[in-house]
Amino acid sequence: MKLSGLLHRSRPELPGLSGVARVDRRTDGLLRRVKAGEIAVLDQVDLARATADALVAARVAAVVNASPSVSGRFPNLGPEVLVAAGIPLLDGVGADALRAIKDGSRVRILDGVVYLGDHEVARGVEQTADSVADSLVEAKSGLTHQLEAFAANTIEFMRRERSMLLDGAGVPRVDVELSGRQVLVVAAGYDHVADLARLRNYVREYRPVLIGVGAGADALLAAGHQPQLIVGDPSEVSMEALTSGADVVVPAFADGHAPGLHRVQDLGTGAVTFPSSANPEDLALLLAAHHNAALVVTVGLSASMAEFLDRARSGSNASTFLTRLQLGGTLVDGRVIAALYRSRVSLGAILLMVGAAMVAIVAALLVSDAGDAVLVWITQLWTGLVDTAGGWL
Asked: SS3 for 186?
């Protein structure tokens, strides 16, 4: 036997699911880098639906979470999305796994264990549809505590920023005219791409002011729309969107520091800051409210209690209830508009008008001398066609 044959003989494939590990403690950074077929290794307590949707869209091979994907605080939606999509979820492997699993290394998952070659580097609980369902049922008992914490955070936000909420103190001026206009606010939330597509006719007919929140600005561009106002951290927005000519509003801390502002300045475009502890979605709504928008339609923003709690992170949604209270009846979820919207002139109406016009023309021809001439011409044309066909046969 030749030695070269032994050297080039392939190693038997080890059992389990193998793939390149993409590791990042920052979920946003991980979602930007992970590719199809890779294994996402993250650390997120109560895996959010927005994260799960992004992982499904990226077509990852599996997800390894250092923290519990369902902690029991509330019934979060992310784990259910992953297992429903057939993506294996290995849960609670511990923080040490993020150090043991090197970014870009090839790992293997088998029976709840992560291997680097033949060496075990992490061990966790492999979630199934049944285990996730059981965890969510138990987590419903934690809703009371979450709502109490939310109420406390909301009261603190009201105490700290009531002048901004009630009087618009600190709300920046923008060049885009919002007063009396309809406004469409798009954020990168659950099913936002499909919801935005359903509003295509509404956007074309009513020409609302288009506001992109973070990655929502890129969603507008991808749908063929031009954002007029961008609100959020510029690091979450593409260069194409930032340089599209839209006004940019960057959230800032109370001391005036605005993370990501340098990115806009480096691109040579202008931006204004909005000092507030409210999340970017609520800042966009407050801009519309204090600039007297006639109607505010939202896409990708939390609409139900489950969606809202699923997105809650360290009190970041403390402004949400008060913001929606500020807008009142002018705030409408985009899914409602899509369900109720009807174009002013429907296709059926157009076809009916064309049909009525044709009937009127035919009737006019039949009762006129011109109609007799047309009928004679059609009869002669038909006779000629029949004679020609007979000659060919």
From this structure: strand
Superfamily of domain 12-140: Phosphohistidine domain (3.50.30.10)
Per-residue model confidence as pLDDT tens digits over 83-140: 999 999 999 999 999 999 999 999 999 999 999 988 999 999 999 999 998 888 877 7
Domain with CATH 3.50.30.10 in the chain: 12-140
H helix intervals, 73-189:
78-84, 97-100, 129-139, 143-167
CATH 3.30.70 assigned to domain 170-340? The reply is no
pLDDT tens-place string over residues 2-53: 444 544 444 556 788 999 999 998 888 898 899 999 999 999 998 988 889 8
Cα–Cα distance between 53 and 23 in angstroms, integer?
18
3-state secondary structure of 24: coil
CA 60 to the chain's CA centroid: 18
Domain with CATH 3.40.50 in the chain: 170-340
Rounded CA separation 251/58 (Å)? 28
In whole angstroms, give the CA distance from residue 220 to residue 209: 12
Cβ proximity of 237 and 214 under 8 Å: yes
Report if pTM > 0.85.
no
